Amino acid sequence: MAGDLRALFGSNERVGTDEAFTNRQGQWQAVADALAGHLAALAAPGFDVQDLEAARRNVLVFHGVGGIGKSTLSRKLEAALADTALRPAQWGEPTWPASPRLLPVRIDLARSAGGDFERLVLTLRLALAGLDRALPAFDIALIRYWEHNHPGEPLEEYLRRTGLVSRFARALPGQMQSALSEAAQALALPGAVGSAVGHVAGAVVRAVRERRTTARALAGCPRLADLLEAEPDLDALSFYPHLLAYEIDRLPAKDAVVPVVLLDTFEDTGDRTNRDLERLIQRVVWLMPNALFVITGRSRLQWADSALQGQLDYTGPAAWPQLAAHIPAARTAPATAPASTGPGGTAPSTVPGPGPVADRQILIGDFSPEDCDDYLARRLTTNGRPLIGDDLRQVIAARSHGLPLFLDLAVMRFLEIRRTRTPEPADFDHDFPALIARTLQDLTPDERHVLRAASLLDAFDVPLATTAAAMTHQAPALRLIERPFVRENPLAPWPYHLHGVVRSAVRRADDQSDDRWSDQDWASAALRAFDALGRQWTGTPAGGRRLLVACLRQGLALARDHRLDLGWLTEAAWTYVSDSVWEPLAPAATADPRGGQAPATAADALVELLSALARRQHEHRSRTVQRLSAVTAAGLLPEDLQHMAVYYLAKAQRDLGHRADSRQGMQLVADGGGRLAPAARRGLVHLARLAGDFPAAHAAAQGLGWKGRQHRVEGDILWPHGDMAAAADAYLTARTQAEQHGVAGERATAQAQRAFVLAFTGPEAADDEIDLAEQLLTGLDLRATALTVRTAAIIRDAGLDGIDDRIQSLRTETAAAGITAAQAALELAAAFHHAVRRDDAAHAAAQARLRDLARGGDYAHYRDIVHFMAGQHPDTPTAVRWLDAEETVHTRWRALVTTRQAHLHTETR
C-alpha cells in the first residue's frame, strides 16, 4: 500500500492507483481470496465431489523467474495456514471461516528433492493420517497398488527410507491395514482370506457391483470397483486421488478438513515436449475439486490452452476458466471457442462457479513486457484512463528489464516530473540511486565489493568475480550468487549474471554509499577482469571455440569501455578468424560509466573490425567495404591486425567486382609476409582466375600450400574447364586437409564446392555430397558457402519442373548479399537448366545477365561456358586463356548437358 499512498500524496490531482506485486502482501491476499472462493464453492448446494465435468476453479498459480522467492512464499504460506501465529503481521487476519479446518500440504517437486509421483500421492495421504481414521476406499486401492509394485517392502520402511517421515508416519500403515480389516469384517470374509488384499479387493468389487448393504460405506463411490479391477500401475495410481476426494468429502463434521496443497518448483515436472509427470499431477488436481492447489513455478500453467489437448487430459478455457483470464488476445482462444474434452471425449461442463472469473495466475518478480505495460497502465489512472501514455509506457517497460521495483520508482519519477512539465522518454533513461540503496542495504561490505566488480561482466563465475574484486577468498562471491538479483544459467560458460537493471544501476547510478568506488577503482577492476578472462582463455585449451567467443565478447567490451590495451585480444582475434565460423561478437553499446562517446582507440577499431567480419554474412558487401574502409583509414590497429582489415576489405571489394582495389589490398598483405600473406596470394590467384587468365592462375597456385588452400584453388581452376572429376578430387583433398587441421569453415567450403561441381554430373552423384555440405554448415555462419550449396541443389535438379521459382528466389538473395561470385554461379546454373530443357529464350536471358555481371572484365569465361552448354561458340572472341584447347572445354560442357538430357529421358520412360 506504501506505493499507492505515495502516488496519492504525490499530486494535487486525484489519481487512481493499483499496486503491483512488489511485496508478498499481495500474494497473501490472492491466497485469501482464492480460499474464500473455494470454501464458498464447497458449501454451495450444487457442489458434487464426483462431478468430473464441471469446470475447475481450485488452482492458484504464482510464477516468476528463478531466485525471486517463490519457494520462500510457498513455505511461508504453509506455515501461516497451519498456525496463524506464524503469519507475518503485515499479511492481516484470515478472511475465511474457521470451520472446516484448513490442512496445508506442501510438496516440493524439484528434482533435487527426489520428488516423484508416487511420493506425491503418499504425501497427500500422509497429511490426512492426523485424522486418526482409515479412509477405506482409497486405502484398499493404495494397499493393492503397494503390494503389487513394492513386494516385500513394508510401507513404514519406505516412508523412513525416502524421508517421508512425520509425526503421523507410524500411524499411516496401521490406518491402511485397519481399512483392509474393517472391509473384510464387513464382508464376512474368513480371517486368513481377509488378510490378503487381493481377496478383499475382489470381495469389495463384487459387493459394490451388487450394491450390498454391507458395503454401504464403499458403495457410495461408484468408480471404486473399476479402479480396483484396473491394473495397479502408475497410471491407475494417478486416478486414486478421486477416492481420496470421496473420503474427504464424507468425513464427519467434527473431522472435516479442506486440503490446501502447495506444489512448489512446478517447472521440474517436465518441459513443453515432455509432460508425462505434469499429466499425472493435473489428474490429481482435477480429481480433487475439494482441495485448493497453490502452484509455484517459473512459468504460467498452460492448461487453459486448447492446443495441448492430447498431451494433457483436461485442457482449454472451459475446463480452467481462471487460468485463461487476462491472457492477451493473441495468446488465448476466442471466447466462442468450443470446449475441450476430457479423456473420455466428454466436454467439461460450463456450470458457473461463484463470483466473477478472476485471473489465478500471478507473476512474481520480473514482469513480461505485456505485464509491465499492464502494470503501468493500471498503476496511475485518471477518469478511468491510464495517466502514463502508450509510448512512455513502452520506454519505461524496456528500461525496467521487467523489474517491479524499477517500475514503481519510475511511476514516482513520473509524478515528480509532472509537477513542472510533461514527462518525456529521455527522462526514464535513468538509474535510480534508490534501487542501488535497496540492492546494497543487506549486503556485507565484501559482498558489495564483489557486486560492483561483477557488474563489469556480462556473466561470471565465482573465481572470475573474486579475481575482478581483488578478493583473497571466495566466500563473498559465494554469498552473492545466492541473492535473488543474481540469475543462473548452468549451461553458459559462466553460469551467473546480474539482473539487467541491477547491473546497469550499479555501474551508472549516482552511488552515494560510504564505500562507493572512484574512477580509478573501476579502471583497476576492469583491468583485473580483463586479465582474468585472458588467463581463462589461454589456460583452458579444452574450452574450445565456445569459450573463445565468450571471452572475446566480454574482453572486447571491457577493453573498449575502459580504454585498455589489446593484450590477449590480438591472439584471440586471430584464433576467431582462423576457423571462419563467424559467430556474432559485437558487444552492447558502450556502457562507460562516465557516459558520452567512447574515444577512438585500438579496442574500438578491433570491435568494429570483428563485428564487420561477422556481420558481412548478413549485410550487403558494400556495407562491409564501408565499415572496413573506416577501420583501415583510422590506422589505430597494430600492423598484423591492420593487415587483417586490409585483407578482408580486399575480399569484399573482389565480391563487388572492384578488381583494382582488391588487387592493391591483396598485394599489400602478400608483400607484408604476415599471417594472411598466403591467403592474400590466394586472393591474387582468384583475381587472375576471374579475369580468365587460367595459365597464370594455375602457375601461381602451385606454391600456395595448405595455408594458401592450394587444392581448393586448383579445384576452382579445373571445374570451369568442365573437368568435374579432377575438380571434385581436388576439393576432396582440400576437405581432408581441413579436417586434419581442424578448420571447420574451410572444410564446409571445400565440401560445398565439391557438391557444386558433382551436381553437374548427375543427381545420383550430388545427393550425398549436398547432404554432407549442409551437415558441415550446421553451426557455421558462412553466407557465400550456403548460397553455393543451394545453387548446387538447383544444378542437381536441372531440367525438372518447378526450378524457375527456386532460381528467382535465390537470385533475390544473392543480389541482397552483394556477392558477385554467387550471382554468377547462379546464372551459370540457370543457363545449365535452360540448356537441358532446350529453352532457348530463357537460355539467352541467362546469357544476358552474365554479360551484365562481366562488364567489369571478370567472369568472361562464364559467358563462354554458357555458349558451350548450348553447343555454340561465342559470337565475339573473349580474352579467356584456357588451360586446355577451347574445343576440349566446349565438348566437356556440351556433354554434361546432353548426358543430363539423356538421364531425364530415361527417367520419364
What is the CATH architecture descriptor of the largest domain? Answer: 3-Layer(aba) Sandwich
Strand proportion = under 5%
Radius of gyration based on Cα positions = 37 Å
Domain unit count: 7
- Can you summarize the main beta sheet? 5 strands, parallel
Q: Span from first to last CA? A: 83 Å
Instruction: Please bin the fraction of helical residues.
Output: 55-70%
Write down how many β-strands occur, each being a DSSP E stretch of 2 or more residues.
10
**Largest sheet: spatial strand order:** 3-4-5-2-6
Label the overall shape: globular
CATH topology of the largest domain: Rossmann fold
Indicate the CATH class of the largest domain: Alpha Beta
* Broad structural category: mainly alpha
Low confidence ranges: 18-23, 326-357, 590-599
Helical stretch count?
A: 42
Mean pLDDT: 82
